[in-house]
Amino acid sequence: MGKQVLYIEMDNCIGCRSCLAACTQCGGHDNRNRNYVLDVDPFISRQTIPLMCLHCVNPACARSCPAQAIQIADTGAVLSALVEKCIGCQNCTIACPYGIPKFDEEQNLMYKCDLCYDRTKEGIPPMCASVCPTNTLQWIEEAELEEKRAQIPLANGKWTASHDPDVLEGETNVKISLPGILQGKQKLF
């Protein structure tokens, strides 16, 4: 089995928020939601998109942590702050260009999506992808990702936002397809 990645096909999102419910109920998440669903422009369209940690290859949250509490797993998953190391400075929440890490004031601790590391290190899809009814969130092998890329070529070369070298944090371990948005197409529902 090759390396697997979380692939987000934004056009498929219907805003059902199943991913949020699954994330909250995941065993190691202490009933805290670590992903979000964003209404892109609720007064104009029903377009929604899942918003989650992109697990940057060189994450700003980890770089900004003075206590080195944010570790990067061998799979590329950027983990939540280690309880024994996090000093609650919130540098990571400020540094992340995507606004993903959140701060728990009661525990004085940062928390964020860890790509369900306990599951994904065994090849099991993260909870959000395992329940998504529209295949917006998919846990696929890199070979399948290449097939998808070949099926939807865009002249401007921006098939995936996460490969664009000008993106805020450069390369990420979560891959995103934005073909409808980039081509100016609107959802049919």
UniProtKB/TrEMBL annotation:
Residues 4-34, 44-75, 77-106 form the 4Fe-4S ferredoxin-type domain. One of its GO terms (molecular function) is metal ion binding. The keyword Metal-binding applies. InterPro entries: 4Fe4S_Fe-S-bd, 4Fe4S_Fe_S_CS, ET_IronSulfur_Cluster-Binding. Keywords: 4Fe-4S, Iron, Iron-sulfur, Metal-binding. This is 4Fe-4S dicluster domain-containing protein.
